[in-house]
């Protein structure tokens, strides 16, 4: 996958664990890490002029501490 098909953001908050097929799944990302995720993944929201991205655990492809 080329870098042009990835999006990159810094993690400022991490949600609670999720259940998938009865299994508890922890976030693959930690606070302040940089995450790489699918170009069409996530929901971009603008709050008071700042852009934020909400991304599902399964859309995160890699993290960088």
Automatic annotation (TrEMBL):
It comes from the Bacteria. It comes from Candidatus Woesebacteria bacterium GW2011_GWA1_40_43. InterPro entries: Chaperonin_GroES, Chaperonin_GroES_sf, GroES-like_sf. The keyword tRNA-binding does not apply. Gene3D superfamilies: GroES chaperonin. It holds the Pfam family Cpn10. One of its GO terms (molecular function) is ATP binding. This is 10 kDa chaperonin. CDD domains: cpn10. Belongs to the GroES chaperonin family. Keywords: Chaperone.
């Amino acid at each position: 996958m080329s870098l042009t098909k990835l999006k990159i953001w810094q993690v400022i908050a991490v949600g609670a664990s999720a259940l998938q097929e009865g299994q508890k799944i922890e976030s693959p990302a930690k606070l302040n890490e940089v995450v790489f995720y699918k170009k069409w993944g996530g929901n971009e929201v603008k709050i008071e002029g700042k852009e934020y991205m909400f991304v599902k655990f399964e859309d995160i492809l890699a993290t960088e501490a």
